[in-house]
Structure formats: C-alpha cells, structure tokens
Amino acid sequence: MSTSPRNNSDEPVVTSYALAPTRTITTDGVTYAYRELGPKGDIPVIFFVHLAATLDNWDPRIVDGIAQNRHVIAFDNRGVGASTGEVPDSVEAMADDAYTFITALGFETVDVFAFSLGGMVAQDLVIKHSQLVRKLILTGTGPRGGKDIDKIMGVTYWDILRATLTRSDPKEFLFFNRNTTGRKAGKQFVARLKERTVDRDQDMALRGFRTQLKAIVKYGRSTPSDLTLITQPTLIANGDNDRMVPSVLSEDLHQRIAGSELVIYPDSGHGGIFQYHDEFAPLAAEFLGK
Amino acid sequence: MSTSPRNNSDEPVVTSYALAPTRTITTDGVTYAYRELGPKGDIPVIFFVHLAATLDNWDPRIVDGIAQNRHVIAFDNRGVGASTGEVPDSVEAMADDAYTFITALGFETVDVFAFSLGGMVAQDLVIKHSQLVRKLILTGTGPRGGKDIDKIMGVTYWDILRATLTRSDPKEFLFFNRNTTGRKAGKQFVARLKERTVDRDQDMALRGFRTQLKAIVKYGRSTPSDLTLITQPTLIANGDNDRMVPSVLSEDLHQRIAGSELVIYPDSGHGGIFQYHDEFAPLAAEFLGK
Predict the structure, then answer these.
(1) Best interface-test mutation with A: which of B87, B89, B158, B203 has the largest number of A CBs within 10 A?
(2) Is B41 left (phi over 0), alpha (psi -120 to 50) or beta?
(3) Does residue B220 belong to any structural domain of this protein?
(4) Complex ipTM above 0.85?
(5) Does the model's pTM come out above 0.90?
(6) Which ranges carry the AB hydrolase-1 domain (chains A, B) (predicted)?
(7) In a domain? residue B9
C-alpha cells in the first residue's frame, strides 16, 4: 500500500472533479489509479464506472453534486486507463478487484455509485461482501442473467461504427436517443467530459475493451444471482429507452431488491442519468445523505 | 534528438525481432518508439505498419528474414503504442511523421517495407520526399483514391465483432480466408506475434484506432496521386482475396508504378504475405539486396 487517503486530512478540500488529483495505490501487484474529492472523514462514495471507461468518463455534474458533502473516490479498473495489470475477463473478477482496491485504501464501509458495467460489478461485490457496502446506487444496469444483456456486443460495435462514420463520440449513439433532445444531451455530456483539461487519463485499449465486452456477455448468459442477498438501501435509475442494458432490467432489479427505489427518466436512453443530471444529482446526493 | 542508432556500433548485432531492444527518439515534441536489429552501417529498411498496429504486430519471420543482412527499424506511429502525441487524422500527416522520424535518426536514404495503412503512408512519403527512399515494398495496400478502400470501416468493425464473439484475434478474420488453410495460417500468424515475451508494446487505444480508420476512409475518397512520381524500384505483393484493401488495387499500383514487380499469392487475403512468409521473406530480402 503506497498511500491512504485517510492520512491526507491536512489537504484542502477539492469539490470539483475536474480538479481532483489522480493518485495511485499498489496492492497485490496491481497499481490502481484513482481520483478523490469532497470532504473526508466519513464513509466514502466509491464510483464504479462503465464499459471502456476511464477516470475521464464521469459526468462532473453528478460527481460534483455528491462531492459537495461526501468523500468521492473514482477509480480505474485493473488494466484500464492508468491502472496496471490485465483487464479481467469476468465481472466476478472485476468485483474482486474492487474489493481489493477498497480494502487497500483502508475502508471497512463504503457507499457505491455504479453505472452500467459498474452496476454489474457492484452487485457481485455486494453479494460477496455484504458488510462492506452501506448504500447502493445502480444506474443503467441490470442483473446477472438479465435478458438481452448479451446483445450488447452487436449494439456497441454498430454504434461505434455509426459514430466513427459521422465523426461523433460513440457515447452519443450508445447513451442517448437519436432525437433532438437526445442528440443535444449527448453533445453536452461529451463536452462536460472534456472540462478537465490537465492530467487526463490514458485511453481505453482496444484489446481490453473487447475483453470487457466478453465479460458482460458472459454475465448476461449466467445463472441469475439471488438478489434477496442485497439488503442495502438501493436506488435504481435509468432512462426509459436503454439499448445497451434494456430499461426493463431496472424494473427487474427493483422487483428483486427489497425496499429499493426506482427512477425511470422519460425520453432518454442508457445515459438517462446524465441527460437528467439536474434532477438526478441532487436525488442521488439526498439518497446517500439520508 | 535523444539517441542515434549510428552511435551504437559497439553493440552486438541482434537478428531476432523478438529480442530487438525498444528505443526512443524525441523530435518536434513527439517521442517515437522503435526497435532495430540487423547489421548497421548500410541503408536501413524502415518498416511502416498497419492500422491499429504497434511494434508487436510485425511477423518475426519477415522481419528476421530481412534483418539477416540488413539494418531493420520498425517504429510506432505518433500516438500509437509507446510513441507519444495524438494519432494524426490523415495519411499525409502520418507520412510527415515518418519523414520526421527517419530524418531525426539521421538517415538520408532508406528502403521502405510497408504493409496496408503503412503502404499508403509510404506512397505519400515517397511522392513528397522522393530522394529519401531508394527501394519500396508495398504489401496489402492500395493507391490514394483506390476503389472501395472507404469500405474498410464496415469490414473492420464487422470482423472485430465476429472475432470478439468467437474469442479470436480480429486479424484472423481481417487478414486470412475463413477456409481451412486461412484459419490455420491466421492462428499461426497470431502465435508468431506472441513470440516476443518481454518488453512488449502498449495496446492500441480505441480512440486512436477510430482516428486511423477515418484517415484511411479519407485517403480512399481522395483524388488519386500521380504514381508516375514513384520512380524507385518497387515490389508489390498481396493475397488474391484481400477484403480490407481489395487485391485489384495491387494490380492498379503495379500498372501505375513503372517497372514495379507484382506478386499475388493464391488462396489468401490481406495477410497473404504472412501466410506465405516462407516464400515472401526471401523474395523481399532478395529484392532489397539487388
């Protein structure tokens, strides 16, 4: 362990993700890159990121909204961005990595904010290490064995092709509807990801991207998990027209996780929480603060 | 300029690409990574690599075959693998980078061995800086404005999708026929690329890959170059069934480059020269040695 955020209490509090310093911690032979912001001392909120995503893929409006009152930590999965090692070929292994990373930082209890693949990883983590997680936010995601999750590969490659042909960011196709509202929201989202201008992360590698896609397909074709094992307060959110992880799977999660809250945003896709960040960021902050 | 291979004449001669040291040279704010092998002192052979390729993408059977008697230098394009900077969005800019790299190493005359995108870059380089290149080998490539080069994007994404679904390397689909001979040749080629076990290069980033693809499409839709400006002895080679850069474009290059030699291998695709490395490596070495 090379550093612990708990030892840095003399530093000024950063509350803008664009300015959050990138740190590293090495454990079990893997160096994890992470960024942290917000006031320290209480239970941190760990952000679990999506397919092909690095530290530069979090919407600052959502991170900043939560970091006003909470210690937020975003990290690069193993083999992604500035984290070393090989990209794991299963969601279970990614959950083991998340556990390794969190405990290496010295935390015994955390809240989890997860999006898409991150939400799959978070579910596996919570089921295996229930005591580690206090509250859970699952966005744009679905359960192990969820119907049509295994179609993500075709959708993803098709949208990357469309985006490449139109010189756009693939996320504009993958995360947002192709109507006026969605196109505008997509452009704005992509622009927000560029607000950080210094110390940006390394791009996702093509090979690791393919490995992550395969891991998601495998997760989609797996035996379902027993979601009654998730007893944490859980907030579930998505757009109503998610083509990557079908929106109906958010309903499914809601039915199977007792006491969970569900928010489905209209006229939006996989990136519904980013399109509706004005509403969602305070909602998530309030849920975590309760 | 941080180093020059000409100053390293006291080192032992490496003739195996798997053992070639990786070096860097910094010029115009870009650090280029390269590997060199073979006896130094005479005109070097510079290898121009393909789409999405790093230093780890050269078939050692072909490199080694030429490095027995020639100083071989392979390099990472700007923004690819261990070379720094942004991936250029045009083939012209890649050719300018190649010129910058070669002249930074202190060479006034080189031979060029180019494959696929590398062959497009090489043509632009030769047309702009004719005096720099003595002999030219163009493999699996086509001319600026070549018919159907702009279809490469669909073919490439489709084959990456197929490869991801079947847990194969995309090059097995993109470079080889899907018959018994091609499948076997593809597996063997991919295995040969793994012969180097230490000091391997960084993977191609997804974003840079997309930028390169767009550059190739733009090249395919450009006004043709005047290939009569290529007066260098030129060897052209390809498989007879290239789906990425149609084989007929090798014929076209042959018609338009005066005095060029053409070799088309049967029952093979874009990676025909790798499938027929037993024949092609000595042929290329002989052509360069004439």
Answers:
(1) B203
(2) left
(3) yes
(4) no
(5) no
(6) 45-274
(7) no
